[in-house]
Fold:
Amino acid sequence: MSILGTRVVRIEDPRFLKGEGTYIANLEVPGAVHLTFVRSQMAHAKILNIDASEALSMPGIKAVWTSADVDLAPAPPANPMMNKAFTYPFVVTEVARFVGDIVAIVVSDTKTQGVDAAETVIVDYDPLPVVVDIDQAFRNEVLLHPNAGTNVVITFAAEKPDIFADCEVVVDLTIENQRVAPAPMEVRACVAQWDGQRLTQWACSQGAHGARDGIAQALGLEGSQVRVITPDVGGGFGAKSGVYAEEILVGWAARKLGQPVRWTESRTENMLSMGHGRAQRQRTKMGGTKDGKITAYRIELLQDAGAYAKAGAILPYMTRLMAGGVYDIPHVQFESHSVVTNTTPTVAYRGAGRPEATAAIERTIDEFARVCGIDPAEIRKKNFLKPDVFPLTTVMGAKYDSGEYEAALDKALTAAGYTQLREEQQRRRASGDPIQLGIGIASYVETTNPMGSGDYGAVEIKADGGAVIRTGSSSHGQGHHTAWAMLVSEATGIPMDKIEFHFGDTDDVERGGGTGGSRSLQVGGSAVKLATDAVIEKARERVADLLEAAVEDIVIDTVRGAFHVAGSPAPARTWAEIMTGIEVPLEAEVDYVPEGSTFPFGTHVCVVEVDTETGSVAVVRHIACDDAGTIINPLIVDGQVHGGIAQGVAQALLEVVAFDPDGNPITSNFADYGIISAAELPSFERVPMETPTPRNPLGAKGIGEAGTIGATPAVHNAVVDAVSHLGVTHIDMPCTSINVWNAIQIATAK
Structure:
């Protein structure tokens, strides 16, 4: 019986549940000193002077460094397409550009000593005008990087022929896809030590190899001079990709001091200086016929890059790629401008540009349906791309692989009891019930492994007949050990508890692409599958010699985990017997590059109750049909979807990173920031559906970001739907009680 497609309990979980995880903050590193970063308390200011005299007189303080002490060249923009003048100094040289910018570094024997000393460092600021709003930044009235001559980091522009001239119905919206904090369970931390020739650094990262390359480049070292180890990592959500200034500085300090150096941030530091997500202001326009056929769609957006040109500035490219969504729209236009502001830089966050595309078109198509007087489900069906058009290259250049969009919608609607929900909604509206029902739909398609990149996988058979998997992918909560072990066990018959899983050490795993963009199973898993097949072929050759038979006659019995001649179950050789007396390793490695990206899709239906007297919103049901191609382990998929939905609901209802007009963050910890909890979430209902992709040997698409992509607009649409009969046509996210209440008051006062 095959174990693939079954709900296998995760084998990596027991040690976490027993507190046996290995996290950087808990590593014992004898002789390590601590770094504490003195951060700018002003969003935009010249640094006139830094007085560290009191700090240097305190117990345990080894040094206080400023930019004059740090001999590192500023980092270039995150992408070569960006304006090259937007460089990023690791320590502020002249001008601080956001609250949290590093202005000095305290070196201490203990963390507590460093924190105490940092509070005594006096920084003399000369305030500069602050730019927080992205429209203001786009006007270039105040330049954050005068050498660039503009605040615009990168533009994706389109020609503007009038695609709406023949439209019978046209709607437009301004949608705030607000800034949010990734807020992983584990904050950032790192440890580095230098042996005179080589740097070893423990990184809280989504990819050891990418971190190694980034550290080596910044420090002027060869890649072979840097070893990066990522032990257990408590969540990343995209924001722990690459390397941050703090991690570069820890490695630099270890070389400078010749002793181990460590750093662990506080939660407030994490909220201030770890990259934020989303932060787009979208202006959409949709047009078509009165009977609901969409013929034209345009999206213009401003992307808030924050103070420096990091990964967030390039993400509108992904929004552009997926702008048309699941719909057959003849004319689609896109334009974006990424601008710097005096705020924390933005980076990739769960979905990285694709949730923003879905949020824009799904909110807009609901408004189009309202104006046309057509049910939101029916207008989607009228405009879906049909299954027979795949594979398809869209107007925006996305190469869709496969899709059954209407089938996913129908499955979700049936599971939700859509007709009955609409009847209940009408009953409440007719009775004037203060608790109104809202039903929100979001149909989406996303791209996973968006760059189409490959990854490394290797399988080695041990002397006792067990196996070792090595993967270039990185596990930080996704269940890689279980899924990869299932693939190897299925093909070899080796029990899962005899399969080791190695990742995240650049000395043990030579190369790899890390985890991001929901790429791991389809790329890293496929590499391991192919390596397993290669190991089996090598084993068949050995068994053929042992049994004096032809290689083509040797078959594997995965129930027994043994090889024998076809048609003759005995004699047989187990994996352990094959390894007896053999000195040459039995192993194989594969660098797998897929045929391209994959495009998961689905539909989410959210049911909310809105108290029209207070504006409070309660999510009472959330139904998700997410098609990620072939499913290896439905239990792991459930976990990924549930976590994604929670983050999507959080953005729709609660989360927003906010700054006052002077650039001071007012959501700098979990007391101020609307982090979601179990109390705000229902038990999610997942509807299974599998449409395999032809682009990898597993038929698998990504699933890690789907929940977030589908959930946010489904919840958003549900809230608007609940009060639409009162004249409300749009509410900006997050749909907090006060925002909903204000929208009701404005609509009913007209």
Q: What stands out?
A: DSSP finds 18 helices and 28 strands in the chain. Residues 1-28+188-264 form a domain with the Aldehyde Oxidoreductase; domain 4 fold (CATH 3.30.365.10). The first helix runs from residue 13 to 17. The longest strand covers residues 294-306.
